[in-house]
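User: My instructor asked us to take a sequence, write out its structure as tokens, and then describe one feature of it. I'm not sure where to start. Here is the sequence I was given:
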Amino acid sequence: MPRKITRIIVHHSEGKADTYERVKKWQTTKDDPETKVKEGMGWSHVAYHYVIEQSGKIFVGVSEETVANGTKSSSSDALEVCLCGDFNSQTPTPDALARLHLVLTNWCKTYKLSASKTTIVGHAEIQPKKGDHDNTCPGKNLLSLLPVIRTEVHASLCGNGKASGKTPTGAY
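Assistant: Let's start with the prediction itself. The structure tokens for your sequence are:
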């Protein structure tokens, strides 16, 4: 039975990775037990369904049927997308934002979701703490854009916004 999707969680890669390959390495590489060097998270797969580079190129991390692990204890009913970059110190490029709009619009159409503040959320909006520190994901500069992004996605869903296309199926 397919998963019931009720929300979309938006992330950024912080300063850890500026490309899909670096996100993949950071998340799937295990620490080196011999040298004690902290290499990465050691996860079995990328923690997001899609990763969007600043160029606008989209990569599939895991299939939509797979529960991603980008948000602790909150991923079972969610699809997750990550924009490469640290959006506490920079702003997403227009190309990356356009592709984010495409992904969000298509997911909302496919899963019959509204473009509301409870459906399209930043990671920090549902998990304000990561361990003992504040969670700022997807970064203050992207988080501040989410209300406008939701409005634009809503307009697209109503036929009044940017053109959409097929949901990505691979890097392009």
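For the description part of your assignment, you could build on this observation: Residues 163-172 have pLDDT under 50 and may be disordered. Try explaining in your own words what that tells you about the chain.
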